[in-house]
Amino acid sequence: MATISPFSHPLYVMLKPAGAHCNLACEYCYYLEKSKLYPDCSNQMMSDELLERFTQEFIEAQTMNQVMFQWHGGEPLMRPLAFYKRALELQKIYAHGRQIDNALQTNGTLLTDEWCQFLHDNNFLVGVSIDGPQEFHDEFRRSRSGKPSWTKVMHGIELLNKYDVQWNAMAVVNEFNADYPIEFYNFFKKIGAHYIQFTPIVERLAHYESNASDKEIENEPFAATRHLANMLNQDAPIADFSVSPEQWGNFLCSLFDEWIKNDVGEYYIQIFDATLANWVGEEPGVCTMGKRCGHAACIEFNGDVYSCDHFVFPEFRLGNIPEHTLVEMLYSERQKDFGDIKQRLPKQCHECKWLFACNGECPKNRFAKTSDGENGLNYLCSGYQKYFAHVAPYMDFMKKEYMNQRPPANVMEAIRKKLI
Q1: What is the DSSP string of 63-97?
Q2: Residue 226: which pLDDT band, with cuts at 50, 70 and 90?
Q3: pLDDT for residue 9
Q4: DSSP 279
Q5: Alpha carbon separation from 131 to 116, 128, 185 (Å, rounded)
């Protein structure tokens, strides 16, 4: 089998310009606690010098003409507008004819008229984290003082629409909202979200002895008192906000049934797009459903680079940008070995008829045991199996249409004619 060069893929790095700092303290957040990695650094903000160095290296490291900067957090709007204006200036200086695009993920609560005018004028794609209707959203997404955030998020979305900013919805499916897929979906349609990413929350809590003071716990209500497990810890218990495999499977099936009847080609749901891509043999466009990991790293405020945004643990630190170049770190044997994690699957997975469709999903969720007691099974496996079996007839039809250069959306007419 021919070896695929790592240079044949675009290089993606999520920037954390404000580290793990955020104005919210969402109970299920996987990144808020990362500030504990840097206990001796009180100002966890990316410097102008590091921003310039990263910008130059990141653009020069690309093998494609299009370069995407992805601003992430924490909450990236914790940095002032001046920071991003400077970032755009640096992009122009080092672009050398390449197309530069920017994407920013935000909780939406800090958006203002000035911010939205800037985002529109500079063609930012904005991802807004919102967990559906107010009751669902405010269950876990609250401020540090425990106040609900839904009203502020909705105001932010109104401003994005007012200034015609391109945005998509990023929703977390958890144990509280997973039983209401139709209410979830109808809400997003009502607010005009045509691009929606539903992400299952699966986290485990490792044993952690907190040395935090009462004042620290008050200011960091979740980050100071818990510690999330990484994939190397096989025995950590599931956090109670995590979606169950049964819930996830039922959620996807019900959501798909609602979408497939009338909304194909009108509303784009990431997991359905990724499923169809794998069905026809194309890249799924989302790393969790792909065959390999390792093409999307993240960089912290101080220049530390980690293998993946969900693997910001000391074991997965690749180095620091002032000490090593991005090319050295992201095309290293160590990162290649990390990418191979996706293909290290138990026997049960290799024998599964749906392996081509999920590729084992995200390695961070592979802490369950197979029926034979082998480690490495994805916790959500049974939910995905139910989903794939449910959508198979429709995916088969859409694949046939796609392969014959016809619109997959023809599936809706086939359903109306009861051909499927």
Answers
A1: SSSEEEEEE-SS-GGGS-HHHHHHHHHHHHHH-TT
A2: low
A3: 60
A4: H
A5: 21, 10, 10
The answer to whether 71 and 104 are in contact (CB under 8 A) is yes
Asked if 113 is an active-site residue, the reply is: no
Q: Residue 287: pLDDT above 80?
A: yes
Place of tokens 């960091």: 220
Q: Between β-strands 368-369 and 375-377, what pairing exists: parallel, antiparallel or unpaired?
A: antiparallel
Q: Are strands 317-320 and 304-306 parallel, antiparallel or unpaired?
A: antiparallel
Q: How confident is the model at residue 221 (pLDDT cuts 50, 70, 90)?
A: very low
Give 165-196 pLDDT, tens digit per residue: 999 999 999 999 999 999 999 999 999 999 99
Note the pLDDT of residue 209. 47
Residue 100 CA: distances (Å) to CA of 55, 62, 69, 91:
11, 11, 8, 7
Angle 50-54-56 from CA coordinates, rounded to 5°: 120
Nearest CA to 256 out of 90, 399, 394 is that of 394
Per-residue confidence (pLDDT) for residue 229, from 0 to 100: 80
Tell me the C-alpha to C-alpha distance, in Å, between residue 105 and each of 109, 154, 281: 12, 15, 29
The Cα 101–Cα 124 span in angstroms is: 7
Helices 381-403 and 270-280 cross at an angle (nearest 10°) of: 60
Q: What percent of the chain has pLDDT over 70?
A: 92
Residue 14: pLDDT over 90 = yes
Determine if residue 262 is left, alpha or beta; phi over 0 gives left, psi from -120 to 50 gives alpha, anything else beta: alpha
Assess contact for 366 and 378: CB atoms under 8 A.
yes
Q: Per the omega criterion (within 30 degrees of 0), is the bond before 74 cis?
A: yes
SS3 label, residue 53: helix
Measured CA to CA, the distance from residue 55 to residue 416 in angstroms comes to 51
Q: Which residue among 240, 273, 304, 309 is the active-site one?
A: 309
